Amino acid sequence: MRWRNAWIVMRKDLDEFKKQKLVIGSIIAMPIVLGVVLPLVMFVPMVTMVPLERPWDVHGLLEIGILPDDTRAPWTNQTMENISLSSTVISHKILKNTHLNNCIILSCVLDNTTVVDSTIQNSSLSSSFLNNVTVIRSEGTGLDGRYVLAVSSNLAFTKTKPSDIDQVLPMMFNMVLMIFIIVPATLPTIIATYSIVGEKNNRSLEPLLATPTTDGELLAGKIFSAFIPSMGSTLLAFTLGIVLLDVVLIPKVAYPLLPNLTWILSILLLAPTACLMSVLACVLVSSKVSDVRAAQQLGGFIVMPVVVLTLGVLSGFIFLSPVMIFIFSGLYGGIDLGLFYFARAIFNRETILTQWT
Amino acid sequence: MIVCEGLTKTFGSITAIQDFTVEIPDGRIFGLLGPNGAGKTTTMRMLSCLIQPTAGSAHIDSYEIGKKEDAQKIRGMIGLLPEVPGLYETLGAYKNLDYYAQLYGIPKTQREESIKTTLTNLGLWDRRNEPVGGFSKGMKQKIAIARALIHNPKYIFLDEPTASLDPAAAKMVREYILELKSQGDTILINTHNLSEAERICDTVALVKNRTVKIGNPKELARGLFARTISITMQKIPPSLLNDISSLDFVSQAQVNGNQLVLNVRNPEEDNPRVVSWLMKQGLQIQFVTEEEHSLEDVYLKLIEEGGR
Description:
The complex is a heterodimer of chains A (357) and B (308). By secondary structure, chain A is α/β, with parallel strands linked by helices. Chain A has helices at residues 3-18, 21-49, 164-202, 205-209, 215-253, 261-286, 292-301, 304-314, 322-346, 349-355, and strands spanning 79-81, 84-86, 89-91, 94-96, 99-101, 104-106, 109-116, 119-121, 124-126, 129-136, 139-140. Chain A folds into 2 domains: 3-48 and 165-355, no CATH class; 79-162. Chain B folds into 2 domains: 2-216, P-loop containing nucleotide triphosphate hydrolases (Rossmann fold, 3-Layer(aba) Sandwich), CATH 3.40.50.300; 226-292, Alpha-Beta Plaits (2-Layer Sandwich). Chain B has helices at 40-47, 68-77, 93-103, 108-121, 137-148, 167-182, 194-200, 217-224, 240-245, 267-280, 295-306; strands at 2-11, 14-24, 29-33, 55-60, 63-64, 78-81, 155-159, 186-191, 203-207, 211-215, 227-233, 250-256, 259-264, 285-291. In chain B, a hairpin with a 3-residue loop joins strand 9 (203-207) and strand 10 (211-215).
């Protein structure tokens, strides 16, 4: 396989494709409308409706002591048990994934700090100063983070219900994420059918097949020419969507929620395998039809596995966790492999010239 | 040299071409003539390594048609003009040619120079970026021929190169083909344009799903038809037809107005004898001409016989 030849085929296809202004417009607009505009329409009202809370704003309740400024404390991603913390200043920090168990917090300052995804259990806080502290999705001996119950020489936490926003966000994120799986599985039906059925209609395959380019190089070029713009426009919308969602949600959750592991795995594994599945399906469909619209309609059927996943997620039957992403990516990858060998078998010169017309 | 021995291709129960045997020496123009569906395009496609022969063998130089490891070498040696130009209509002439030049692995500077020369010769350099979809049929055909020649192939396969062209464009393409021949290229042409084949081909093969006849267009006519001479006289007496038919070197005679049309075995020897005999009869001869049979006559006769 000479990848250079596949690259040449792809570049020519993209050159041709660039002339189709309407198609290009739809390829760029579709992921942006579905993956950026639509989620913002969903999230903005939610954010504006849920009141902003700063439950740990307890400035001035404690006696202020003179304490050394120790900002070296390794608070993030730490689990501390049976220790005593004293004379520690934490100012303008985000403490994430920090777990304290059976600890005594003595003469500490926690100033303009956010505690996220952390637990504090069976611990006491005394002679300490807490100023403008926000706690999110954290638990202690029942701390959920929204409500600090009391600040006293012995701080106790009581479990409360998760906030509305905490309950709704994962579901909504899953729905938005599915858009970034469906879109790359749909876009190739527009591009791949043009690049193959277009060549058939144009009768340009015969001189192309008479060049020393191999069947595999031509097939690879056709696959790239549909895969790269589809994934490119999806990634563009994905990046834009993440940035805008974070901008909208940060006032509520205090730190950027996206991209998280699920989203990263989805865009790196699930979206490309779904996209490839669609591209290969279009190659197969294009060999049997001579009309671009018919190819696009038939190509839509082949993304059924993506539709199944979408329905599962929307109905709440499937929750897109990293494990689930690996499972579906493996499944799609297997289908891709099968489709590739099938496409490879039918994408040979004699079949193309004698049966593709 | 192209050598085919018993080349056969069937599609299911349909035989496209059977037992095609021919030798095409380098530097010659070889024409494949036949009606639609005679197997001309199939033969060309087999020789271009686009489809596999069902039986028989063919070699281009030392490479064998149908052998997977030789296919790429053969494709690099040939330039194919298919029946339809098959250009990318939304792209300009430059990009159309550049795409193929890249696929043939021509270095950038060389292909830029080559494309510029070609398009300048075709008078298209100033319009190189205009979509070729807006060009005339003749112009598209010229670009398609230029595309087939972009890598300077040793063997050029042209499938109906002047089909659907106007007479001026067809003439230009024919002249271009003859120019290629003068450069030593070997050219295989599929056509059912008989006058074109007669004008440019050194050898023709008449095919109708099998080889009907191979030879030089003129020799084919001579081998098939008795040679006819036409003698124009001031006046032809009514008894002349009977008298001249009795001569042993005249195989057939007829009178058309003031023309006496005779079939003789060997005009070089027999014509002086006929003229001398007529003059002895006191007849005044105005013109003596040999009637030549065209390739069209040969084609129609042979294809008709081949179809039986």
